[in-house]
Amino acid sequence: MKTLFLTVYDGDTEKVILRSGVFDRLKDSGNRIVLLIRGADRLAYYKEGFEEGNVVVELLPPAMTKLEMVWYHVGWNTLPTHSTYIRRYTKYRKHKNFIRYALECILGFLGNARAWRELLRTVYRYSPDSYCSDYFTKYQPDLVFAPNMFSPEDLRMLRAARRRGVATIATAKSWDVLTTKAFTRVKADRLLVFNEFNREEAIRLGDYAPTRVTVTGFPQFDVYARQDWRISKEAFCKQFAIDPTRALVLVAVPGDWKTPYTKEILAELDRRIEAGKFVKPVHVLARLHPKYADSSEGEHYKHVTMDRPGTHFNEKREFSVDMGIANTYQFTFAPKDIAHLANSILHSEVIVNTESTLTLDGAALDKPTILIGYDGNQTLAHWDSVARIYERDHYQHVIDTHAAPLVQSHDELEAMINNFLGDPDYLRAERDTLKTNLLYKVDGKSAERTATAVLSQLT
Length: 459
Hints:
By secondary structure, this protein is α/β, with parallel strands linked by helices.
């Protein structure tokens, strides 16, 4: 029996690794698994749900220090992508700190050189740190699996493992990490990625050798290949007191950090449904992001039902390294939450979102998506508009397929919803292209491929 360290940064890790089938396969291997949990508020939940037999649950010590915060800012500014430029310039427009902006631009320029990236990795690797040394002494791990990759916890664990000669494997928590979050400050012995675009990014931006990058697909999409979670539309709608004969339009509410104007779009949809503007009777299910607050929450509409999904540990808020945002909810995805998301997509005829991974979820179930590219009732300059975020590197791959129309007004949104309601095959070929290009394989075996790759590092 060998010992595997597996870090659990947030709810995304639970959804992608612990609940997708990856963890079950690792546990069934008979090796000892030490789940390292971030946040004392989460510890009891994970102990109750996962600690048994060959699985041990331990609490990670706090990892975000002042020095790590410096590395965090150096890291994302060093990433030489258009996504980083958008983020940097947006922050400058908001705070008007020219000196800071100039320094960040210098980092961005240097980030184009591999020599600079390797220098930073060397400095980081040999910076003094004793993070989790007691756990390494206690358990003597044979492998560290870091499924977030860019959190301070994962980075410090990867660094600690390298210093001790412990094998490492990592995966990005999402398909946008390699172009939007930070450059790979610590390279693992093997990196698992979701699709071929990610593989190219890992080689070009993460400086990985091609032989050290493995494409697995999205483990969290394996659920869509199964039947066990499915309930009837009648049963699903009954949870919300929605008339099941109406066509459901699923609207993903992103949070005010991305766009504060979603409530205006929901209000206008509500008004147009009441006015009979759609080719079918419609009801909107507005799915709030489980992590981000949105000013539409608490609003009341006749034809729109608000839904806050996810399992929340408490009402406390925290800083998230995802986009450098404070006051985010502490949440996770339990099996019921995953089934709820899957049924929300299955029973919707159209998905509307703002630069969300939900587009890929929808493609896995052959559901059409419309992208919001305008700001409610406002007409804003490009750099103040939500439209700018569709220039980010990872989402350009979606835009290039033309499968998910980017609408620029209430009228365009109405027309596009009617197109999809009136013709289920509208843009079907484009959706097939999106599915092929971005989802790699939706065969229900991505978790198996991921677990197999992890276990191969233990041999």
